[in-house]
Amino acid sequence: MSSLKIASWNINSVRARIDIVRQFLEQEQPDILCLQETKVRDDTFPFTMFRELGYDHFELKGQPMHHGVAIISKLPLHDSGRHDWQDNGEARHVGVRLDCGIRLENVYIPAGGDIPDRTVNTKFGQKLDFLERMIAWSAELKEPTLLVGDFNIAPLECDVWSHKQLLDVVSHTPIEVETLGRLQASHDWVDLGRHFYPAPARLHTWWSYRSPDFTANDRGRRLDHMWASPDLAKKATGHYICEPCRSWIKPSDHIPLVTVLDV
Amino acid sequence: MSSLKIASWNINSVRARIDIVRQFLEQEQPDILCLQETKVRDDTFPFTMFRELGYDHFELKGQPMHHGVAIISKLPLHDSGRHDWQDNGEARHVGVRLDCGIRLENVYIPAGGDIPDRTVNTKFGQKLDFLERMIAWSAELKEPTLLVGDFNIAPLECDVWSHKQLLDVVSHTPIEVETLGRLQASHDWVDLGRHFYPAPARLHTWWSYRSPDFTANDRGRRLDHMWASPDLAKKATGHYICEPCRSWIKPSDHIPLVTVLDV
DNA sequence: GTGTCGTAGG
DNA sequence: CCTACGACAC
After folding, report:
1. Is the peptide bond before B212 cis (omega within 30 degrees of 0)?
2. Which of helix, strand or coil describes residue B57?
3. Residue A98: its pLDDT value, please?
4. Which of A31, A93, A108, A191 is catalytic?
5. Residues of chain B scoring pLDDT < 50
6. Which of A146, A229, A248, B250 is the most buried (most CB within 10 A)?
7. How do strand A77-81 and strand A69-73 relate by DSSP bridges?
């Protein structure tokens, strides 16, 4: 029995953010870091800093301009898989198996555009379709799995700064919440955030860049999540968010999430 | 009789370079700073840092994308003028009069493109024409004047890392050197650089960004100059270049020049 | 190499 | 607000 610390962070460009990624790793010392929105091709991924800190194992799924996910680890990674559920070339998923037997699945669910109507905004339809394809995949999972990433959905009323004002804002619409609910049900996923901090605790993971005084009005949302298979959830001994990272210099608009497992 | 310290620097974007401009001002504490290639519109000029350091007087001539010159001063500035000698809207000159009676003229002479042939490269023709118009202007100057800026010409053999290899490279061609010579003759300008460091002393003010190890082979050129009216030159008590600035983080490709006058 | 800008995406 | 990219200039 040993302790395993896993972090997840939408980094909004791993190259532009390399200094705060280092700062986070030095401070939290996770065994594994899952990144979303790396915005880098695999052949220009900034390996050096990670290797300097003892992270020698990488599973990358990048693309030229947008999206991009990565798993960066001090521990060996096996049986990596990259789902392109919508067969559109977008780099939104990478998964691995760890020596301890658990699978780690890192996903960046589409943001979904501005207008929450699939008839006028194809991106919103793509987001819902992406979730449907994840549901089919998730229902078949057999191994104990940690599913982490930027889900771009804040499901509960207390997951946004104003439930009423965000009911028609992409990320908190009823159709998204309902679809995410079916994804959760498809594997009986345990939402570790709410497992450790039951509603209505405040647990925001994202604040828009567009209000520079984001701490003043605190208009955040919980868009990032870590979900565990039911049996695996019992092994989670700790879970927390790293809110101070949002105030670091040149921050990401998202903050890191951390889960500690006894494995 | 008091001492007046004037600096000139092609800064290659005053906004991108704001930290090293502050570092330079704190270190050298000039009374007046002349900048070229500010690359900023006058309405978005970064006044704040300069005011924090006691520079309350500004004469700006900016434009949206390229070029742009500025005079930033602890001392009052009067009778400002902006010549657009070629009437093409390019922000390449600003001049002022100081309380001590001398005029300060800050100019950014066109680079002139890659090919030193005015029949195939209109930019080279524009550079020579710009010099001709400066000659006509300079010949009529009556006040004691300090003419500073990025002249984009290295006139002497010792002003470039290899006279032979640069004879056909824009900035050191015979026609440019001859034309700059006539500009100098038109007012009997004293080249303060060579006044204080006679040829063949090394006195480079620019090193290309394209060789990252610029200190290794030292392929520099003396493109930046400070010229004084004959009588004013007698009042120059010091002159130097600030070569370490080329090694600062996020440097300009040019270094600052400094002249001290007893006025 | 290192800026500017416009466009696209968040 | 913040990023990436591509075109252009130096």
Report:
1. no
2. strand
3. 98
4. A108
5. none
6. A146
7. unpaired
Strand partners, B167: none
Examine the residue annotation and report whether A55 is marked as an active-site residue of this protein: no
Q: What angle is formed at CA B97 by the lines to CA B75 and CA B139, rounded to 5 degrees?
A: 150
Kindly report, residue by residue over A118-135, the tens digit of the pLDDT: 999 999 999 999 999 999
In degrees, rounded to 5, the angle at the alpha carbon of residue B233 between the alpha carbons of residues B231 and B236 is 130
Task: Give residue B147's domain range.
Answer: 3-262
Cβ–Cβ under 8 Å, residues A74 and A54 = yes
Distance B208 CA to C1 C1' (A): 8
Structure token pair of residue B170: 């824009």
pLDDT band at A30 (very low <50, low <70, confident <90, very high): very high
> For residue A52, what are its two tokens?
């300097």
CB of residue A64 closer than 7 A to nucleic acid strand D?
yes
Residues of B recognised as catalytic: 108, 150, 254
pLDDT, tens digit (0-9, with 9 covering 90-100), for A68-94: 999 999 999 999 999 999 999 999 999
Q: How many domains is chain B partitioned into structurally?
A: 1
Nearby residues of B56 by Cβ (< 8 Å), 6 or more positions away:
B73, B74
Bases of strand C lying below 7 A from some protein CB: 1-5, 9-10
Q: In what order do the strands lie in the sheet with B257-262?
A: B57-61, B69-73, B32-36, B3-10, B257-262, B236-241
State how far the Cα of A198 lies from the Cα of B204, in Å rounded to an integer.
66
A212 CA to C8 C1' in angstroms comes to 22
For residue A213, what pLDDT is reported? 77
Check residue A216 and give its pLDDT: 77
Average pLDDT for A154-158: 97
Which CATH number fits the domain that encloses residue B195? 3.60.10.10
Tell me what pLDDT residue A5 has: 98
B12 CA: nearest nucleotide by C1': C3
Residue B37 CB in 7 A reach of strand C:
no
Quote the tokens at residue B129. Answer: 């024409």
pLDDT score of A1: 81
Per-residue tokens: B26: 């704190």
Q: Residue A123's closest CA among A193, A75, A162, A170?
A: A170
Q: Determine the pLDDT at residue B167.
A: 94
Report chain A's mean pLDDT, rounded to a whole number: 95
B78 CB and strand C closer than 7 A: no
Give me the CA B44–C1' C4 separation in Å, rounded: 14
Helices (H) and strands (E) in chain A, counts: 8, 14
DSSP B61-123: E--SSS--EEEEESS-EEEEE---TTSS----EEEEEETTS-EEEEEE-----SSS-TTT-HH
Say whether A240 is catalytic. no
